[in-house]
Amino acid sequence: MSELSPVRLFTLFSSSAGNCSCLSTADTTVLIDAGGSCRRILTALVNHGISPQSIDAIVLTHEHSDHISALRVLLRRCPVPVFGTYATVNYLADHDLVPPGAQLCPLAGGGMAGGLAFDIFPTQHDAGDACGYVFSLPDGRRAGFATDLGCFTDTVYDSLSGCEAVVLESNYDAQMLEHSSYPRTLIRRIQGAWGHLSNDDCAAAAVRLAQSGVRRMVLAHTSKQNNLEDLALYTTREALRLAGLEECVVEVAPKFSPSPVVVF
User: Fold this and answer.
1) Based on C-alpha coordinates, what's the Rg of the chain?
2) Which of 110, 149, 216, 248 has the CB geometry, 3.0–4.6 Å to 197, for a possible disulfide?
3) Among 64, 248, 44, which Cα is nearest to 166's?
């Protein structure tokens, strides 16, 4: 544990029905995505002892509705800067998804959210220009965030390698998806290189990340219909166990309620 004030990381809710996470240091609070509803976001923050007025910025991974549905109402309550790639923030403006005068901050690389520096990296997902984030913490460590991954690319690995903590997608179980009621076109989309990361692919990625020095992981964005939280958690923990990497602490984000706070 650093001599500085600890960092807190948790998801407010995380599934195909809505996604929002929080990273908080002694002087900066950042939301990653703003899906779900404004009321759910504010209630979850208060329940974790974080005042909504302390939010310094919102960073967006992409423009899909499960990541931005609360944004317009939330910005009326908390008028903070919104960061995202050019394609993402332009989509917000063009589709009237933020209040008039909202501070949209397009990113080509890194930025500053409150007192936290961050870098972005591209992710393969069928959005305008999806990205992940790596935050530089006050004590020099890093925290990474990567969901909505059609595949775990070398770029994603290089960006997250060596982070202290990582939020990583574990979206679907392959057998559950294959036998689901989804139409074949949607199944192919989810399975594809620009869709989502399966439990098995997440587990393989987790092994690589743990070998690089990642010490904590939160599995996120589990499918409402095609995954179970316990199954996602078991798949990754078992892969780490078989690789002799059980010292890496892994939790799973609840679909519809806040996760336990990861403190580091």
Assistant:
1) 17
2) 149
3) 248
Q: Is the pLDDT of residue 3 over 70?
A: no
Which two tokens mark 203?
A: 């587990």
Q: Nearest Cα to 83, choosing from 51, 108, 54, 50?
A: 108
Written as six digits, the tokens of 167 are: 């939020």
Domains of the chain in sequence order:
8-256 (3.60.15.10)
Alpha helices in the chain (DSSP H): 38-47, 65-68, 71-77, 86-94, 154-160, 174-178, 184-191, 199-212, 229-242
In angstroms, the Cα distances linking 243 to 9, 38, 108, 211 are: 26, 41, 37, 9
Of 147, 163, 252, 169, the C-alpha closest to 215 is: 163
Look up the pTM and report it.
Answer: 0.95
The dihedral formed by the CA atoms of 171, 62, 263 and 81, expressed in degrees to the nearest 10: -160
What average pLDDT does the chain have? 96
